[in-house]
Queue: 2 jobs
Job 1
Amino acid sequence: MSIRHFLDIRDFSRDELLAILAEAKRRKQARAGKPKGMADDDAPLAGHSLAMIFEKPSTRTRFSFDIGMRQLGGETLVFNSGDMQIGRGESIPDTARVISRMVDSLMIRTFGHDRLLELAEHASIPVINGLTDLSHPCQIMADLQTLEEHRGTIEGQVIAWVGDCANVTHSWIEAATILGCPMRIGAPEGYQPEPDILEWAREHGGDVFVTTDPVEAVRGADCVMTDTWVSMHHGEDELKRRIADLSPYQVNAELMRHAKPDAIFMHCLPAHRGEEATDEVLDGPQSVIFDEAENRVHAQKAILLHCLRGL
Ligand code: CP
Ligand code: NVA
């Protein structure tokens, strides 16, 4: 049987994505009101372990995988790569083979996407993408869960993405294509999605429109999204230029007025308040950012169950 990795949204069919989301929803409902440290009644991953390697900082991904795995009855091991031999140049294939002998599953947050793919190629256990420079599929599962909770459905929801296009945008383009959401992206030249990903979306029937006009992107949207203007893989030297170029793409109350009156606002967090979005929007009635953060736990659990048990 092939190993069930979780590397990119595009590796999954519509039915597979919906099955993972349904499990996330069931798990969330089943433990309403329980202390967060208490295991789910069925503790389905008792005896299983998850190792996590972080080559970049993380709050949500680290906490949600850790508590999520514990709620499923499993064990977690969390490492910063700087404390590992991989941080001193041990090869990725050797690291993959060694860790595969010791734990049942592995999550990595890293830089180049090729590092993730190489790890998965040489691992004999499921590997989960906890974010690379190119994609962030776990985030998108939580976003989809949040979208469905607040809009009642996923298919047909018009998604507006404004500002810098990076890993989260790319995984969203893949999800929107597979699940039938028109996606409207407003970003300046040089900050737009990777051409390969737009090409993949076109080849797979995606309805993805890219404009340099933020108002055009947001007009009539069901959900408005943005992300930091300076991602973890961007250099400090890019900061000033990025802020100057992206300032016209700030999500503020005026821009939100162009979306549907009941549109929601999402942000994967961490937010740089006053840059890509104002406090008024982040803390306003349309914002669902903390539901989105909480749903990382529920979505992560469904991803772990997919990888370790199959859904
Ligand atoms: N959204 C997200 O992945 O957050 P962290 O970087 O805190 O994990
Ligand atoms: N685009 C952001 C996402 C953080 C969760 C980054 O890569 O820093």
Job 2
Amino acid sequence: MILVCGGAGYIGSHMCRLLRQKGIPHVALDNLERGHEEALPGTPLLRADLRDPAALESIFAEHAFTTVMHFAAYIEVGESTKNPAGFWENNVHAVWNLLEAMRRHGLNQFVFSSTAAVYGEPERVPIPEDHPKNPTSPYGNTKLTVERMLGDYSDTYGLRSVCLRYFNACGSDPDGILGEAHDPETHLIPRVLLAAAGRGEVKVFGEDYNTPDGTCIRDYVHVCDLADAHLLAIRHLEGGGATDQYNLGSGTGFSVRQVIDAAKEVTGIDFPIGTAPRRAGDPARLIADSTKARTELGWNPLYTDVRTCVQHAWDWMLSHPNGYKS
Ligand code: UDP
């Protein structure tokens, strides 16, 4: 039985979908602060908060888990600069609670959602896993801290883990049942698509970067490809694999302007675009070197063209104009 913490969120719900498709027993744990119960059709939900050790203890006493997955973090870089205390509590302390519950119950397999933000401003792209790590935000600091905590728990307690460092997660399941539903929405692709739907203006944050069209380049990775990598990480741990870290990206960079052009092509709508100064802490280029995930885990991402990601996100937006409230 797999425990999916944060299973009602964007990436966690796509993970639960994959586990359902594969017939793998699992339960989701979510406090529904930001997740959506509707994102879990067919997956049992335990409503609890990882910041509550007593609730965790009773859940671990009642279920025989084999592997624990963690998707239950706060993710907005900007929010993390305004509320670092909340980020350290939820993204670090709550994970410590979870690891301690695992230790008490003799569990030793953990899959963790990490991020390209652990690298900070890259010295070179594409970025391999051994690139220096200098996060530039409280969000990145919390994720790197958990990676280090997991290294210590592995060395001393034999609690093995896989950290998956996502670049820019995007898209939605091609069946159109699940999608991205953040409130407020800050991510580029959904914001661009909201603008295409006539629901607000999107602004390009900075056009003076040292890139071919002056806008930031990112590596967009489809959420279903992320879920596939997590399943491979579970297999790695089940096969006795060691604690390790892997980058997850398509390996191709697309600029903000290219994403906007893709959205105009996919939607067939020519919507106005605003401009704004650079957003603090945004590196010009973030591109993953995911060779290690491909060669060691056997990861083979299917949706490496940003247009497909935009298409799936647009299909979801058309069928769910108000997200899960539709
Ligand atoms: N971006 C933008 N306008 C927006 C949102 C994002 O120009 O309304 C840019 C942002 O500066 C970055 C890229 O789009 O270069 C991706 O940003 P997002 O917030 O989606 O993900 P992040 O890279 O911060 O994880």
